[in-house]
Design goal:
The chain folds into 2 domains: about 150 residues, 3-Layer(aba) Sandwich (Rossmann fold), CATH 3.40.50.2300; about 100 residues, Winged helix-like DNA-binding domain superfamily/Winged helix DNA-binding domain (Arc Repressor Mutant, subunit A, Orthogonal Bundle). About 40% of the residues lie in helices and about 20% in strands. The chain is built from 9 helices and 12 strands. It has a 6-stranded mixed sheet, with helices on both faces.
């Protein structure tokens, strides 16, 4: 689609998702080497076209599919850095798609849907979505959310290893191992541990941890970090009374190290 179409549509309302619905075949925008690739799965023609145009204008490669099966095939065959996923697909649900992705990958996934009920949003985030955007939406805001999700996922680095004692993080594959055995961590638990291990002498406040894990627009409470830390300690075998990995610095936050 020409860029003028995206500018015209955004110029009228500034929103995507309020127009008519059509079907189209999938297409793959092959960009320059080094660009990050975003997979867009949606059965609405205008949304696919406009999101593709905005992704390309913002320096991303766009990989687009009109249903879940095509999206899953692209996900399995191509290197994808982030997924934009509609919940209401013609063949199977976006929730099912998300669950399949989360069985093998922790890459950022943003759900895009007309469902505005709180229960739908909570369910999407619970099964593994990193963010949730309702239709109609601002394409500029969507691009900001894409960049924020990629920044959170890629920090402090997208490749290499981090280690502390018998813990090791494979950042390229987002796998944490202890004594060589993989640990089953959630996305937030992985991100918190990676943050702490990336700067082992630094004391991180709860606000800093929330910002790194959830982003600037997260409206949760800082005490939710304590719950994540508690579960993370259990999974890595850390005794909260005599921690060997995650130390509580009272009145300040958390850091890596022994008590």
């Amino acid at each position: 689609m020409a860029r003028g179409g995206a500018q015209y549509a955004a110029g009228r309302s500034g929103l995507i998702g309020a127009g008519s619905v059509k079907r189209l075949s999938v297409w793959y925008s092959r960009g320059m080497k080094g660009k990050q690739t975003v997979l867009v799965v949606d059965d609405e023609l205008k949304i696919l076209e406009l999101v593709k145009a905005y992704l390309e204008m913002n320096g991303f490669n766009a990989l687009c599919a009109k249903n879940g099966r095509e999206g899953m095939a692209f996900f399995e065959e191509h290197g994808v850095d982030l997924i934009l996923l509609d919940l209401m697909l013609p063949d199977f649900s976006g929730e099912e798609f998300c669950k399949k992705v989360r069985q093998v990958s922790n890459i950022p996934l943003i759900m895009i849907t007309a469902k505005v009920e709180e229960e739908s949003i909570i369910n999407g985030l619970t099964i593994g979505a990193d963010d949730y955007v309702t239709k109609p939406f601002s394409p500029r805001q969507l691009m900001a959310r894409v960049r924020a999700a990629l920044r959170r996922n890629g920090s402090p680095g997208s490749g290499g290893f981090l280690s502390y004692g018998d813990l090791m993080i494979d950042m390229e594959n987002r796998i944490v191992r202890k004594h060589g055995e993989a640990l089953a961590l959630t996305r937030d638990e992985y991100n918190i541990l990676t943050l702490l291990m990336s700067r082992q002498a630094k004391i991180f406040t709860r606000d800093e941890i929330l910002e790194a894990v959830k982003g600037d627009d997260f409206d949760g409470f800082d005490r939710s970090v304590d719950s994540h830390i508690k579960r993370l300690r259990m999974k890595i075998g850390d005794d909260p009374k005599a921690p060997q990995y995650i130390l509580t610095v009272y009145g300040m936050g958390y850091r890596l190290g022994e008590a």
